[in-house]
Each structure stands twice: as structure tokens, then as C-alpha cells.
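User: quick one, fold this
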Amino acid sequence: MKLVRLKTRDGIRYGVIKGGAIYEVQGDIFEGLRMSGRSFPLEGANLLPPVQPGKVVGVAYNYREHAQERGLRAPKEPQLFLKPPSAVTAPGSRIPWPPLSKQVEFEGELAVVIGRPAKNIDMKYAQDYILGLTCANDVTARDLQLPGSQWALCKGFDGFLPLGPCVVTGLDYKELQLTVSLNGKVRQQANMGDMLFGIPELVGYVSRVMTLLPGDVILTGTPAGSAPMRRGDEVSVEIGGIGTLRNTMG
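Assistant:
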């Protein structure tokens, strides 16, 4: 099932994609799906980020090759950081260039959307707490990160987390392939099964640190190949079974 959030003349609505239409969902998608009977054309729909997370938990160096390209050893446990909710932006939106940075890079990732409260859960039950998966671009001001490991600064600018276009339920993440392109040229590719720490382990680990709430997002890490962008560049994050997230650098 593909869940979206969109802006309509009547306000912001959730919906389910079926064929070329979006079928409106009544109420909160985290409390069960109730269809209203209304639908909207998918083409031309004003899609918003599919969820509004209360928090976004990032995982650094979750692919061995990415750690190696940064001159680091693969971590022995997940390396966590936070991005603020204000960083989240919609599919198709322009990513603002922050005046404090001269080097902004893309990082394509698979994102996990939490479906119900999770605290101190066993990883073998993690799937019970997941709503679905979506695409993400963990935009990073690299020149602000490297001098002093300023993760909140380099990751936290407004618009630095494109998310979407939809949340898809019931996928096996190990079968998913990530492809990230810059102006049509492939720059990152990975199979999600190559992550050092899989989704069940990440959900269980994070839930032992902080309570995860419906709509919260875990970014599962980026593979090797992230690179600087220039104003006007288009980045696409494609994950088979989910779709393509496209955004332009401001």
C-alpha cells in the first residue's frame, strides 16, 4: 500500500495511491485506514512530505564503503544523530542553500516511518512498530561538518531533508535497491541488504535510547558516493518498490 499526504482545496489530506488516483483517507493513518470515498488525480497532485515527524534519527556510516571513503573504520554499533522536523521538505521542492555553507552534498537513503509508540523493544518485534518505508535525501553542509563534527549544524538547516513521495507498507527492505542520480548521472547505488545494521536492529537500538512515536523517522544511512551540489542541480533518490524523490538545489 502506498500512502501519501497532499494539499487539496479543502486542506491537507492523507490518501492511498491506486492506479492513477489518490483515494482519500479519513482521520489519522496511524489509527487505521478509513476511506472517505473521495479521490483525486495522481497527476498534478500537490504532494507533501508523507509524514510530519516529531523527530528524525539519522544513522551515520551504516555502509562499510561510506565509512571507508571518509577514512573511518566501520562502526561496531549504530552511530546516531538528530535532524529537526523543520528540515523536512516535500517531493519536488527546492532545497534552500544556507548562507553559512559553501559545500552542500546529497545523501540518498532509505527511511523508516514508525507506526506506533516503541520503547525498549526487542529487534525481533521491530516490524510490528513500523508503518512503512520511504525515500530520503539527508542533505549535508559538508564544510560545516568536517572541522569539528558539527552534526546538528551541518544536518539541521531548513529544507535539508526531502522525504517521500510516499510511504509504502509491507516491503522487505533487504530486497530493495537504492539509486541516487545527480542531473541524471548515477552517483550512488546500493542494496539495502548491505547495511551494517539492518532495520530491525536500528529500530530496537533507537527505542532503547528514546521513545519512538508514530510518524517519527529513522534514516538508515547513505552508501558511498555522496558528492557536492551546485545551485540548480537536480537530485533523484529512487528505491524500487517505493518510487523516486526528486528535488532541486536552491
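User: anything notable?
Assistant: The helical segments are 64-69, 142-145, 151-155, 199-209.
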